[in-house]
């Protein structure tokens, strides 16, 4: 099946048509800047602009950095709070005139890693973590996603975990990689005590720092870097739409 995948992020909105059998992009990815301020209407307009560049009128899947249920955003940890309660599914369907499914961005990346990437052969419990501005989490058991886990917001060191251990915290507080990896290991310890995953997949910018970051991480479970790189978000969003996850209720 061919589905258009969209990935809405804090700085850019990326999209491309995706072959949902293979996870491959069928055309070069397009990107437009996320509007500032990132009002819901502005985001919908920019996302529609990405899709229209391809003259696409088939199904669309979109990853969004919030809890998503039936097309509606329910949280706004790292995005404009006007998003809360906004029906992105309905607005995008109206703007595009086609079926649109919305899922959490980390869930989209997790689905892609489980189907085609670093967790493709694992039928146990997989925890996919995207380490960036926030900590996005996807929990997948034998290929089935438990959506909207938001485990980046557990309490750690008396703080919201992502404000303590996301890559943005490293930059904001000028932490060295060793100290940052130490903080992230505390986070992994908390995840292991609660969920006992068999495999932990690390995505996001920090996952490319092998010597500085990945090699310093410790857990009982195997820890591997994400494999889908920049395409996990949009390929996973397309896959979710093909499987009818996140469609408006
Ligand atoms: C949000 C999640 C999102 C993650 C990564 C967090 O702040 O609460 O919904 O998946 O950032 O973008």
Summary of the model, kept short:
This protein has 7 helices and 14 strands. With 249 residues, it is of the alpha/beta class. It has 2 domains: 118 residues, Nucleotidyltransferase, domain 5 (2-Layer Sandwich), CATH 3.30.420; 109 residues, Nucleotidyltransferase, domain 5 (2-Layer Sandwich).
Care to describe what's here?
The chain is of the alpha/beta class and 249 residues long. It folds into 2 domains: 118 residues, ATPase, nucleotide binding domain (Nucleotidyltransferase, domain 5), CATH 3.30.420.40; 109 residues, ATPase, nucleotide binding domain (Nucleotidyltransferase, domain 5, 2-Layer Sandwich). It has a 5-stranded mixed sheet with strand order 3-2-1-4-7. It has a 5-stranded mixed sheet with strand order 10-9-8-13-14. Strands 5-6 form a two-stranded antiparallel sheet. Helix 1 packs parallel to helix 2 and helix 3 packs across helix 7. Bound molecules: beta-D-glucopyranose. Beta-D-glucopyranose binds next to helix 3.
Mean pLDDT: 95
Strand element count: 14
CATH topology group of the largest domain? Nucleotidyltransferase, domain 5
Radius of gyration using CA atoms only: 17 Å
CATH architecture of the largest domain: 2-Layer Sandwich
Can you summarize the main beta sheet? Answer: 5 strands, mixed
Poorly predicted regions? none
**What is bound: which ligands?**
beta-D-glucopyranose
Number of separate domains: 2
Task: Quickly give the structural class.
Answer: alpha/beta
CATH class of the largest domain: Alpha Beta
CATH homolog superfamily of the largest domain:
ATPase, nucleotide binding domain
Total count of helical runs of at least 4 residues: 7
